[in-house]
């Protein structure tokens, strides 16, 4: 079955380019376009795409606000694209529920792969953004009490899974580190996301740092 994609950008050239790249793939169909956040919400509800490729800076409603509404009101995954890896809106978009982030100068094959990864329920971040996101969270130097309390809902194994997730380990690497099967890891990851009401691994990383579970140099037990 073809993945359904909605392309959102206020610049016609970018929308046309993304559509051309994605529609050329046998397993991807661009079902619609939107030029601002409000239109993106309307289209996401009407067209039920699997993935929304979302610009950040747009008129009427920016990509952060649109991402928050789309993630709350539909089952679509959001892949954020922007010109700047230091864009101050990126962190807010991830917290709003975006499943991935890439720069607009990404190569066409990377864009296609990103859509497939996000559609499959995985999270995807440009490495530079992952580092800056973590650095930004660490720089704040304080944990949020309401998140710390939620950690009590996890088993010891689930807390360890979350701790390792926050370091960027893949399922295969987690399985090797914990000497268990990948299937077992996937089960634990799914349980962690469900208990903490998180959409994906990106939000799990943010949660782990904001809850103080992972701190450079030491970890919270």
Distance between the termini: 44 Å
Secondary structure: number of strands = 8
Tell me the radius of gyration.
18 Å
Spatial arrangement of strands, main beta sheet: 2-1-3-4-5-6
Characterize the overall form: globular
What this model shows, in words?
There is one protein chain. By secondary structure, the protein is an alpha/beta fold. The chain has 11 helices and 8 strands. The strands form 2 sheets. The protein has a 6-stranded parallel β-sheet with strand order 2-1-3-4-5-6, sandwiched between helices. Strands 7-8 form a two-stranded antiparallel sheet. Helix 2 (37-47) packs parallel to helix 3 (63-73) and helix 6 packs parallel to helix 11. The protein is globular and about 50 Å long. The model is unreliable at 217-221 (pLDDT under 50).
Considering the chains and any ligands shown, give keywords for the structure.
221 residues; alpha/beta; 6-stranded parallel beta sheet; two-stranded antiparallel sheet; 11 helices; 15% strand
